[in-house]
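Here is a typical sample entry:
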Amino acid sequence: MDFATADLIDEYGAELAGCETQFRSYGSRVRFAGAVETVRCLEDNVLLKEVLATPGSGRVLVVDGGGSLRTALMGDMIAASAVANGWAGVVINGAVRDVVALRALDLGVKALGSNPRKSAKEGAGEAGVPVGFGGVEFRPGAWLYSDEDGIVLAPRRLL
């Protein structure tokens, strides 16, 4: 998919929301887009792992990890599962780990930072619910577009 978020903003303006959070890019896909799926979890990645083990069909998983950098919500094994299942990308309002391995995977990965500590495995959290951070509400089914300039969200597919 060939696009630039700045061009999308110029063309579609008020229809789009721009995420204010300044994420780091970790996957080999710098530019990615897809329909949004969501998970809300705090320092527990069981739901994230379960969702990424299902067919992604080019979707993007948006994870609200509460901005916590105390533990990583995704590492190389979960990210490899996402690639194998056809996910376009993962945006994590939290931390990842195994960053060298993530760079080699054909997946868009944006997160706040990294931490080698693994997360809890209790299964706490919610999937398929609206999540909000960076001044944007991410709803399942909306469209996310991400590139070097940032993330924009549209209520429908634009391209």
